[in-house]
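DM from R.C. (forwarded with permission)

"hey, sorry to bug you on a friday — could you get me a structure for this? deadline for the figure draft is monday and I only need the backbone to look sensible"
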Amino acid sequence: MHHNSKCLQINYKFCVRASVLHQRIYARRSARQPTRRRVKRCHGRHLRQIARRQLARRQLARRQLARRQLARRQLARRQLARRQLARHQLARHQLACQLARHQLARRQPARRQLACR
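My reply, with the result:
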């Protein structure tokens, strides 16, 4: 026994200087049957609060997803429009060039041959 046997007899668990023997006994006991953790019970209001928070989180997630999808769609639309415009401008340019060549050919045939060569 330790020198503080008096406090061991009263309540050895809470004594800072519990004997090594008692510590071993206590340790073995707790190892054999771990203490049951008390489950915290939720009251109605608390449950409702949790549910409300979850709902809010879900709604936020949905809104963010919708915003991302919208942004993606808008980007795709803009890219498509840009591509179409580029194609249109190219076609117009080619047509104009063709027309210019045609008119040039009608006006002076000699120069066209020079240009071709």
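R.C.: lifesaver. Residues 45-116 form one domain.
me: no worries. The radius of gyration is 44 Å.
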